[in-house]
Amino acid sequence: MSRPIVADPVVPALAIVADDITGAADVAGMLRRRGLRTALIAGDPVPGRAVPEADAVVVGLRIRTAPVAEAVERATAAARWLLDAAPAVLAWKICSTFDSTPAGNIGPVTDALLALTGLPAALVCPAFPENGRVVRDGRLFVHGVPLDESPMRDHPLTPMRDAELARLLAPQVTEPGRIVRIDTGDHPREAIEAAIAADARYLIPDAADDAAATALGEAVVGRALPVIASGLIPGIVAALRRAGRLPSEGIPPPAVPRLGGRAAIIAGSCSTATRAQVESFGAHHDVVRLQPDLADPPAAAIAAARRAFLAGSQAVLVASTADPAGVEASRETLGPEAGAWIEHWLGEVAAALAADGVRRFVSAGGETTGAVVEALNVRVFEVGAELAPGVPVLTADRGGAPLLLVAKSGNFGGPGFFERVLEATSATGAGDIRAPMPDGGVPSAAVGAVDG
Ligand code: ADP
Q: What pTM, to 2 d.p., does this model score?
């Protein structure tokens, strides 16, 4: 008697802990592009619950600026949960602009994951050349500018005032004397092995382009803990394919789902890219400004967004996005916890609009997206095609209805990114956002506090 053929359960070859959700989405999008079925878990995994069947599983935490002890505990718990599924590689995904404070959390979590995995060393490389992040002479550059001269200098939570990776990492790790810059040249494997043999614990290589980042990704597998941004992923995937831990052929991502219906864009990033995106969108569409100095900022923003939808808009952008002077002004009004308040308020806006039936969301900013995803109460996302490098479409089931989220790190995407996402995910494909008025404005009188 023949027995039914039962497919082997898919065990993840690659498990990644990411320090925020847009970072998780970014690396997950890169994995999906390489043909890996990829699941994204938003927030702390539930102990005892099975790891999803996928080629790669990414846990996106919200620990970039959490207190060190909390970040270490949550990253370790997530890593333990992932390691129970016996992946071939566990990686620690950090921001490609090394976002952290002198206390952490990149270094402390690296130390914790080294202890957990028993690996002798970590390869620390935030390169993502496709998005303009490269490491030269041990210094991190963003689109050709040293990190500390880039707009990251004025980040509201993690202002980056140095570009030298070894100097940034030193105050964060237990053994700063074992940080070593390595020259990998054409032989990254040998360079990694030699550095480890010489007792280095934290290896900092250069990665000036995609080829170098890929070679490092291939070389790190089985040798060191990857502490990386997305640039090393193609190499890691290639090494896993060669080792037979992944099928030699990937499965292309499905077409971008067209959900249609109303869409909400929630922007809390104050990065240069997001500021340009807000401005570009606002030239023709509805923008609700979250105003921190009002008595009840989220209630005012929710009411303004609802008025915009009632006036016929199919897409509304709610933004707290401000330039450095605006950020300073909110700090004066709200105090040092301004960022946390604003995140929380933007989450409230997202939850209210979801309760009204909005199923398409775009979020801009790592912490902002963390707040939005927590407020939407979604845990597991399927990762689809990327709409820009590092920005995939995420889909989930929310209370029995499909939900679509495009979550981008603040600095990703070109100026027309929001319009492009709406067009790509609209039911008609032509973009179901309201057409601009003949004079290029919107009937703002009808929508109160909305500026067009
Ligand atoms: P990015 O991806 O650019 O780092 P994040 O969302 O991670 O974006 O971080 C932006 C931080 O700035 C959040 O804490 C957010 O609440 C805060 N923020 C947003 N708007 C303002 C504002 N107008 N004033 C002060 N802080 C703000």
A: 0.89
